[in-house]
């Protein structure tokens, strides 16, 4: 039995990386046994990537617990999700990895966020020296799609592999949409780089063209300032009767929202985007997807088959593709059904567990 120490955050807050680390810990494996040290540096999504003195004390606690778990249970493999292109969590990684990584015979880096190697290339000489001690020469680097930055290769990992996410099937059988006016759904942290403003700009174009639709935005605002600016834009664009803010929804409430939707739109250009887990959730619920040709997202959405891919920051392109779907209910249904078929073929949770277990087995054979 291979013993693996998983060092990573589980919800809260709810975001892709935390959710998938929780799923990993919940998995039933035949050949590996997982232990966990929680990196609970952020209790809410707006704290992610930001410095606070409380995080310093938690950092010391994490380091102590890693060392204790290593010797208490005789663990050989360290599993760690490196930071994205943000210096605050990068410095956190420096402290944790330099002080603990050498205790383990194998290290697996899972790049849930992308772009770390691009940040490392911009660092000063002292910072690059610390980055080399912390990040270089991992035994295995996992990324989520071939189109993502090759962080593992750039940081000279001994093995670089691609394992896309998988999700359990939450599809609500027997439900039939009864929307007389088509409903568009967006799910993510409500922040500029997730494309919220781009989507609102596209909706104004659709409204001005006379299209009927509603838009639901699910998620927490990144900041109070951004919330004010978005709600002001909704009013100034004359979209108040079109747009509903759902806030954060989880569990069955979240799945109900997906099941009652006609189109999913996710115009992200988020700096650390790697996969777009919410896109996979939308495909699971037979939703056609309008999203961006950005990082690993095109590995999910087949342009013209399960939805449409557009360039980032292009509201007119988003509006044009939404227009095609609003005009054609049969196209929406056809694309949605094909998206669900691809999910069932390639992106189930069971398939993800198999690939993850094999990755740990492979790394211990070398």
Which SSEs are present, and which pair or pack?
Elements: E1 2-8, H1 16-26, E2 32-38, H2 53-73, E3 77-80, H3 87-100, E4 106-110, H4 116-120, H5 125-135, E5 140-143, H6 151-154, E6 160-162, E7 183-187, H7 196-208, E8 214-218, H8 224-236, E9 243-247, H9 251-259, E10 263-266, H10 277-284, E11 289-292, E12 307-310, H11 315-327, H12 329-346, H13 349-365
Parallel strand pairs: 1-2, 1-3, 3-4, 4-5, 5-6, 7-8, 7-10, 8-9, 10-11, 11-12
Helix pairs in contact: 2-3, 3-5, 7-11, 10-12
Q: Characteristics of this structure?
A:
alpha/beta; Rossmann fold; six-stranded parallel beta sheet; 366 residues
Describe the protein's architecture and organization.
This protein is an alpha/beta fold and 366 residues long. It has 2 domains: 2-166 and 348-365, Glycogen Phosphorylase B (Rossmann fold), CATH 3.40.50; 183-346, Rossmann fold (3-Layer(aba) Sandwich), CATH 3.40.50. 43% of the residues lie in helices and 16% in strands. The strands form 2 sheets. It has a 6-stranded parallel β-sheet, with helices on both faces. Helix 3 (87-100) crosses helix 5, helix 7 crosses helix 11 and helix 10 packs across helix 12. The longest helix is centred in the N-terminal third of the chain and has 21 residues, at 53-73. The chain is globular. The mean pLDDT is 94.
Number of strands: 12
Distance between the termini: 16 Å
Q: Which architecture of the largest domain per CATH?
A: 3-Layer(aba) Sandwich
Determine the mean pLDDT: 94
Strand content: 15-25%
Task: Outline the low-pLDDT stretches.
Answer: none
What is the CATH C level class of the largest domain, in words?
Alpha Beta
Overall tally of structural domains: 2
Helix content: 40-55%
SS class: alpha/beta
The ordered string of helix (H) and strand (E) elements is EHEHEHEHHEHEEHEHEHEHEEHHH
CATH superfamily of the largest domain: Glycogen Phosphorylase B
